[in-house]
Design brief:
By secondary structure, the protein is α/β, with parallel strands linked by helices. Helix content is about 55%, strand content about 10%. The longest helix has 21 residues.
Length: about 450
């Protein structure tokens, strides 16, 4: 049956986008096929729901092509072995960390390091959950470990707060140290880099400052956007960057914006930071947010109803850290009061703040925020203009009205002033596709979304 399942997955590749196949079928296993009933084991209930609602017919057809008749699909989650209140594993998505130190990173903690790294040992690849929103970044990060100073140098990781940038770059560092304890690697927030520079200048030790960083094999600076406005620090980093790069030493940076969007950044430096191309992490989709929350709950030893998971995922869309905060608040209140998490949300004892709820957001607000973010008027957005930036803003409004408010395409058409629902469908598809590669479009969409829920 294993070979048949491999054939089924190979056939699904012909009709299911590669990213979707990875997200929804990774970890899925066939348990048995008996009398037309296919029993499938899925890592969580959300994968099961998605496969059942979206891919069941394709799965049945693929099995039929392999001479196996499947009339219905049934899903089970793998048995949890030795579930305890105190969990010995650790899982992280974005900034979420659960449990204790991961196995591989524990080795880093025990190692005798000749150079103080600044790394936290509980950040590893093993406990970073991969989804469609971050799989490219994770793949490149893992390749970078085996190609220091090569194709991905500098490695510039871009994305909003709380999406896992710090975890991912520290995972790179921990893996590098695990493989080579003699490696001179330093991780630090950019604000610390600046503070140290100021201290050294005041002590007339500017030369020593540069020497310290030139000893490195790998330099990891977090939150690089905080260097804005600090011209002398930029100049010092520019010299360090050039020296390290010319000697094929690895430079890794994180930022919440692209190099060209960092105000007052020296154009020469901005250009160099983009040499290898910025790599981004995006906000997880609804299904991925559900999976994050499910993982957090399970590894904390809680069995939570789907309605609680979906309630939080549906209402928290601005920050992954906030997902964890809302879940922790509900779990804490449930434990103190001795009730279930479902009772907590159903009774309104602990809820999502009103501004996070769909019911508090109107279509006019969405359109207004998109227009403002795009630098145009509402009248222009809802008008007939075909100018490129106005047309894009109109399509972004369509996309957000669909994603955030769940409005029908017919209703959206009337709200944004287009002829019919087919124009809306095209606009939504275009934005969804362009978001994969267009960083400026992502900035527009995320900026509007954050403004909507601010």
């Amino acid at each position: 049956m294993f070979d048949v399942w491999k054939n089924v997955l190979a056939e699904l590749e012909q009709s299911v986008p590669r990213n979707d196949l990875k997200v929804w079928f990774d970890g899925v296993k066939v348990v048995s096929v008996d009398d037309g009933k296919l029993l499938i084991s899925t890592p969580n209930v959300f994968k099961a729901k998605m496969i059942e609602s979206r891919y069941s017919d394709l799965v049945k057809e693929a099995f039929k092509h392999n001479d196996v008749e499947v009339k219905e699909l049934e899903f089970v989650e793998p048995e949890k072995k030795g579930a305890k209140k105190r969990v010995q594993r650790s899982v992280s998505v974005g900034s979420i960390q659960v449990g204790s130190v991961a196995k591989n990173s524990a080795k880093v903690e025990k190692s005798t390091e000749p150079f103080r790294t600044g790394l936290m040992s509980d950040y590893s690849f093993d406990n970073f959950v991969v989804g469609e929103n971050n799989e490219v970044a994770v793949g490149i990060a893992k390749n970078l470990v085996n190609d220091l100073g090569g194709r991905y140098n500098p490695f510039f990781l871009y994305g909003g707060p709380g999406l896992g940038k710090t975890h991912l770059v520290q995972a790179i560092g921990n893996e590098l140290i695990r493989n080579n304890r003699e490696l001179k690697l330093l991780y630090m927030p950019t604000s610390d880099f600046y503070s140290e520079f100021v201290r050294m200048i005041r002590a007339n030790q500017g030369d020593r400052f540069g020497q310290k960083y030139r000893r490195l094999d790998v330099l990891i600076l977090d939150d690089f956007q905080s260097i804005v406005g600090k011209e002398k620090s930029q100049a010092a980093f520019f010299d360090i960057f050039n020296d390290l790069y010319q000697r094929n030493k690895q430079i890794i940076l994180t930022s919440d914006r692209l190099p060209e969007q960092i105000e007052t950044l020296d154009p020469r430096l901005s250009s160099r930071l983009a040499w290898a191309g910025p790599i981004d992490i995006r906000m997880p989709s609804f299904e991925e947010r559900c999976a994050i929350l499910k993982a957090k709950a399970e590894f904390s030893g809680y069995d939570i109803d789907d309605e609680v998971i979906e309630y939080i995922a549906d209402n928290v869309k601005t920050n992954v850290r906030e997902l964890e905060g809302k879940l922790n608040g509900i779990l804490a209140y449930a434990e103190i009061k001795g009730v279930s998490p479902s009772e907590v949300i159903n009774s309104g004892l602990v809820g999502i703040s009103p501004q996070d709820k769909k019911g508090a957001i109107t279509s006019k607000q969405v359109i207004s925020k998109v227009a403002k973010q795009a630098g145009i008027t509402v009248a222009e957005l809802t008008g007939k203009s075909r100018v490129a930036n106005i047309k894009t803003a109109r399509q972004v409004a369509m996309y957000l009205l669909s994603e955030e408010l769940g409005m029908s395409t017919t209703k959206i058409a009337s709200e944004v002033g287009v002829k019919d629902h087919t124009t809306v469908m095209h606009g939504i598809r275009k934005i969804r596709e362009d978001l994969k590669l267009d960083f400026k479009l992502r900035e527009l969409v995320e900026g509007a979304r954050n403004a909507i829920y601010a």
